[in-house]
Design goal:
Elements: H1 2-17, H2 24-28, H3 31-54, H4 63-76, E1 79-84, E2 88-95, E3 100-106, E4 125-127, E5 133-135, H5 142-158, E6 165-172, H6 180-186, H7 189-192, E7 198-200, E8 223-232, E9 236-237, H8 247-265, E10 272-281, E11 287-288, E12 291-300, H9 303-323, E13 333-336
Parallel strand pairs: 3-6, 3-7
Antiparallel strand pairs: 1-2, 2-6, 4-5, 8-12, 8-13, 9-11, 10-12
Helix pairs in contact: 1-5, 3-5, 4-5, 8-9
């Protein structure tokens, strides 16, 4: 997979710096280029990929990851600036007149336990932005993205006679929180460094076969919102549920009714997703808690769909609380993470 992504990234970089998009296919089919990428993968990139995979870091904490990525690019001859937007890095290579091309890779891992059984599986833990310690894994392929960036950077250096222009390579932090790109821009990304004419990025996708590269017109990825619902109740003993307002029951009804947003309120021609990714409540078998916590991810392409889903989440949460007999002051607290 990494080698196929390397071929695409390198081919597009060479094409944009020379004869334009039409040249990409010629470069992608270049046997010498493919052989060079394979040799580099066997000699360098596989080990680099395994290092990144075994040592993931959470969003805004990519200190060692960024340092390694910066070191790799600096060794190739790029002018590297670290600490852009926190842990972000920017590497620049000027190669005569021509367009400015930005290649971007994200760096952060996810709070997910690795169960792959690989010899280089991550056993690391880290404290997330909420203060919770979690196992950490590169479960979203950012290790692959960084490895491909380094490989493409090397091939573009070694093929400098075939292109001209300026390369700007980005190591982006905190992509999983949707904050890293904004942090880099606010730290002067487009004022301190060359402004790109083209920005090339990619993402691995498990739904397509290995070795296949796809693209789509328009949006390739959806907007994302993270939503927290704090469901309030009145706790008590599990043997006396009639004296309580059980937040686990109420939260369960909220989860069930949220399914109607996409299936019954959103046009079937308009994509949208509401997924409850975490449901946390209680601490003991026979105690009814006084709070439950739901964590949701919401995906949309249009502002209208986003508003329908977000407003619908709050409406359903409050309506279920009212139906259960809670006071308005006890209605669930719905928070949308602002980016």
């Amino acid at each position: 997979m990494t080698r196929h992504l390397l071929a695409l990234t390198t081919a597009m970089g060479l094409a944009l710096g020379s004869a334009g998009f039409a040249a990409a296919q010629d470069y992608a089919g270049n046997d010498a280029l493919r052989a060079a990428i394979t040799a580099d993968y066997e000699a360098n990139l596989e080990g680099l990929y395994r290092h990144f995979h075994a040592h993931p870091e959470l969003s805004h904490q990519e200190h060692e990851t960024a340092a390694r990525l910066a070191s790799e690019l600096r060794a190739l001859g790029y002018d590297v600036t670290e600490g852009v937007g926190g842990t972000g890095i920017v590497a620049v290579l000027e190669n005569g007149e021509g367009p400015t091309l930005m290649l971007r890779a994200d760096m952060d891992g996810l709070p997910v336990p690795e169960q792959t059984g690989l010899s280089y599986a991550s056993t690391d833990t880290d404290v997330d932005h909420r203060g919770v310690e979690n196992p950490v894994m590169h479960a979203c392929a950012h290790d692959t993205h960084m490895t491909a960036l380094v490989g493409a950077a090397r091939q573009l250096i070694e093929n400098q006679d075939d292109w001209s222009g300026t390369l700007v390579l980005i190591g982006q932090p905190a992509e999983e929180l949707g904050e890293g790109a904004i942090a880099m821009i606010e730290d002067g990304l487009f004022e301190r460094f060359p402004t790109p004419d083209f920005n090339l990025s990619f993402h691995t996708f498990s739904a397509i076969p290995t070795g296949t590269i796809t693209y789509v017109p328009g949006y390739a990825m959806a907007n994302v919102d993270s939503v927290d619902i704090y469901v309030h109740g009145r706790g008590g003993h599990g043997a006396y549920p009639h004296t309580t307002k059980d937040p686990i029951y109420l939260a369960s009804m909220i989860v069930v009714n949220l399914q109607s947003l996409v299936s019954r309120e959103l046009s079937p021609l308009e994509p949208g997703v509401v997924t409850v990714g975490a449901f946390n409540a209680g601490a003991k078998h026979n105690i009814i808690s006084d709070q439950a916590h739901l964590q949701l991810t919401v995906r949309s392409y249009s502002d209208e769909t986003r508003e329908l889903l977000l407003s619908g989440i709050e409406r359903i949460a409050h309506a279920q609380a009212a139906a259960y007999g809670l006071l308005e002051s006890e209605y669930p607290t719905v928070e949308v993470e602002e980016i």
